[in-house]
Design brief:
551 residues, 4-stranded antiparallel beta sheet, globular
Length: 551
Amino acid sequence: MKLVINNFWLLLIVCVIASGCKPEATTASDDVLSKESVTMSKISLQDKIKGGWAGQTIGVVYGAPVEFKYQGSLIDDKMNIPWNEHYVKYWWDKKPGLFDDIYTDLNFVKAFQNHGLNATSDSIAHHWSNTAYHLAHANQASRYNILNGIMPPASGFWKNNPHADDIDFQIEADFIGLMAPGMVNAATDIADRVGHVMNSGDGWYGGVFVSAMYSLAFVSNDPVYIVEQAIKTIPAGTKFHDCIADVIAWHKQYPNDWKQTWFEVQKKWNLDVGCPKGAFLGFNIDAKINSAYVAIGMLYGNGDFTKSVDIAARCGQDADCNPATVGGVLGVMLGYDKIPAFWLKPLQEIENDNFENTDVSLAKAYNWSFSHALAMIEQQGGKISGDKITIPLAKPVAVKFEQNFERTFLVERSKIDKSFTDEITLEFTGNGYLLYGNMVKRAKIDADYIDRISKRTYGSEPLGLAEINDPYVAIMHVYTDGTVTDTLSLPMMNTARKLEPSWNYQMPEGTHTIRLKWINPDKGYEYRINDMIVYSENEPKSNLPVSDKKQ
């Protein structure tokens, strides 16, 4: 049987008929965190943990066909987003890399499984850096750093990782709230150890916010309360806090119009400063704005699984990750058994199968997270007596203040489009730069190449640019204004690659010359510089002429 969603309202009607779309209570909740503890059964705890993993995976698949297809535009209700009886299995077989949101999340679960609840950042980082699968953005930048001796928190610090404000930790933090049910400050402590492996500043805050929402969903059925309490874990005055606080305020101003709130978010917050792929372009993987879309789904979904996930997807940009987060939080609120069969049945086809390049399945995740949650409850002073669990509660406490890219304003993105095999010299005026480019292997197109293309899956390395096991490492010197300031190690191997060759921030404001000199050139390789992104300590003003006024 194939079912295609003609529009959102048909989807909602089907879900209502299936029942169970809402938790038992979605009205304004009591301040549950004013209590000292909450009690639930082991069965209920396990059901909620399963619901979190299931909801996250459902959200990933629902948003798959629209992921980054809508960059800076919302997805109209008339745009069909499909779902059918075997839809999860379809994506599982066709593009297993789609599930990277889940299996990178699960990689950290396994780190705690191997190293215990008190696993250090270093032990987590070493486990993380030795994964075999393709990574991108802040994740790959951190893996490169760790493999080259730059350990957390330096591995995620923005001056060492241009992707520090990206969404990476935000989409990998789900497991934290699941292992710290109702214990929001215990969750943010874990987030400190994990999140600084690959992010800092707003990128770290995205994961802290998600961790807190998951944790709170175990003890509250009010999504507004969950969002309003979760943002208290983020220091006031940070851009991340201000962005989510704006969403909360706009929800109160426009309580029945999520699209108006979406427009307000676009007008104020749609500028990705750090990510080289998004700077001055429509692509935006910044944690602030994608967390804002998560908050919109939570606040306007009214506790309804279908409506919440659908709104988060229709906000655009990272439109699989954001509904995954919302689906996971709603899955905890509802519990696994109350996720409508319409959504749950297709997921159950793959629950016992291992994710690509891992030995972990959802079924294993359910058990590991349950085990970790029980241990965390006891560690935090809770009690387990037979089937009865008592969870200690506390009001959210803000984590430490961090803000990336201060005195670092985007001023220019210059198209370079040059390849070199010996050296290249570029000039800019400002206080910082980043070169956006990549290693290229000169290879002819032969039968073997065509065969590799035919077997390529989502998330694999771009063939023709990098080979998985290619041992070549380019060495380059960076000359800044005539002086050697850095030595670059640029592996061709996909899992070891450096995403961008060179950058420097918060330099003295002025005109600078950057020269890259290849020390060990090989005629089989070249380096391509696509763009040069320039920053200044001075916030730019429009250079357009003032229109003539009529006298």
